[in-house]
Amino acid sequence: MASLKNRKDQLLFQLKRWSAWLPDQPEKPVSSAWPNGHNLTASSETPDLGFLPQIQRRRLTPLARAAIAVAWDCCPSGHQIPTIFCSTHGETSVCFNLLEQIAARQDVSPTQFTLSVHSGIAAMFSILTNNHAPYVVIATNPENLTNALLEAYSFITETSEVLVVFYDQAIPEIYHPTTPTPSRLSALALYLDKPDPRASDTLSIHPSSHHLNKNDDVNAKLLENLIESICNGDLVIHTGRFCWKLDSHLHNNSLTC
């Protein structure tokens, strides 16, 4: 493990826990997925935010509910931990609705405006969980989801733990002719730490030789496909320019990227 930590062509993390929200997934035994995590939709049709007061839950959009649910499930309660939020489209649907209201000269809800900005969900999570640690919000194209892990790596060189949250949803139909869209709402949280030779699960990130066509509709569904692969227990996953590889004490992974 020590020799791998010095290589410049990969990033290494200890994967302490993961949590996902991906509806319409075929039921599979939890044991078939990556260890130390689960898909929350296996036990609920809507994100369970029972840990929040009802008045706060009502303000949240479906995307915000999913992102906050996986982040809360993944991170220890009350933990002060730096967080990276990553989304391609964010609350585009909310923003588009506000633009329609402005065009129609209607009043705009201040609450909806607050939630429409790209950092809105991150700010809500920070406030609702009383987490005073830094957070970063990234807008990236789907092929570059791993940018969030590059950011996370910069954090764990100075601190020990970091939470990474990916989330996205289908965009309004008016954008479909020019922008590939995810097919459904999805969210994924990863609770990461510095690599440790004694740790049971190590996530490594490598450059991938399986580049996707930038015009391919598959690009828009990379987050969904990533979550499906994690739930299926795939140990090597290609995500655009990078390859994710899990080495776990539960699996003898001799595969390479």
The CATH topology is given as Peroxisomal Thiolase, Chain A, domain 1
Helix-strand string? HEEHHEHHHEHEEEHEE
Number of strands: 9
| Count of structural domains | 1
Q: Average pLDDT, to the nearest integer?
A: 83
Overall helicity: 25-40%
Mind telling me which CATH architecture this is?
3-Layer(aba) Sandwich
CATH class: Alpha Beta
Summarize the biggest pleated sheet: 9 strands, mixed
The first-to-last residue Cα distance is 17 Å
Q: Indicate the multimeric state.
A: single chain
Proportion of residues in β-strands = 15-25%
Low-pLDDT segments, ≥5 res: 1-6
From the alpha carbons, calculate the radius of gyration and give it in angstroms. Answer: 18 Å
Shape: globular
How does the helix and strand content classify structurally?
alpha/beta
The number of distinct helices, counting runs of at least 4 residues, comes to: 8
